[in-house]
Amino acid sequence: MGNKENEMSKATLTLKDNYAYYVDEEDSAVVSVPANDSIGLIHMQNIPPISDHRLFEQEIMNPGYGKSIRDLVKERNARSASIIISDATRGVPTHLVAGHIIRELAEAGIEYDKILFVVALGVHREATADEIRSFIGDEYYGKVRVENHKPRDNAYLAEIGTTSFGTPVEV
């Protein structure tokens, strides 16, 4: 296995003393596991982007399965909505769908200040203001709420149970 560099980030995997050491320089993360338990770094394939962005709006307004956002809001008499989005370390085209989602929610009666986007950080750094603007778009930046998830702050977490091994589960 030796040293392998992931083209998507500044991550390396090094074998030493029967351990595999994963180092992500961008996130200042270091993880070690027994070498026998490591399969190496997985490289993602480059998938061509959707070239016709109108398809996003069509699918949001008339999904191929299930109910539309507008129908769900009306059916549940919702007065607010939360949308979980990926952070900047993922190649998710949030900016191509966020505006359509916001419009659908607003047209169903949810006010802008009752729409919350939560940036799912995992163990990554918080999204910057510029990144948040790029997720939501200039048209809605400052109109809807966007918050970074705080996975290390218990004040923002709720315990929802335990696993079969007794490990607490918090969200």
The major sheet is characterized as: 4 strands, antiparallel
Q: How much helicity do the residues have?
A: 10-25%
Distance between the termini: 36 Å
Low-confidence stretches: 1-8
Averaged pLDDT, please? 84
Rough outline: globular
Q: Tell me how many strands there are.
A: 9
Order of helices and strands: EEEEHHEHEHEEE
Rg estimate, integer Å: 20 Å
Q: How many helical elements?
A: 4
Structural class call reads: alpha/beta
Condensed summary:
Helices cover 22% and strands 25% of the residues.
Structure explained in plain terms:
A hairpin with a 5-residue loop joins strand 1 and strand 2 (11-16). The protein has a four-stranded antiparallel beta sheet with strand order 1-2-3-4, with no helix packed on it. It has four helices and nine strands. The protein is globular. It has helices at residues 54-61, 69-76, 94-107, 129-136; strands at 4-5, 11-16, 19-24, 29-34, 81-86, 115-120, 145-148, 159-162, 168-170. Mean pLDDT is 84; it is low at 1-8. The protein is of the alpha/beta class.
Tags for this model:
171 residues, alpha/beta, four-stranded antiparallel sheet, three-stranded parallel sheet, 4 helices, 9 strands, 22% helix, 25% strand, globular, disordered N terminus
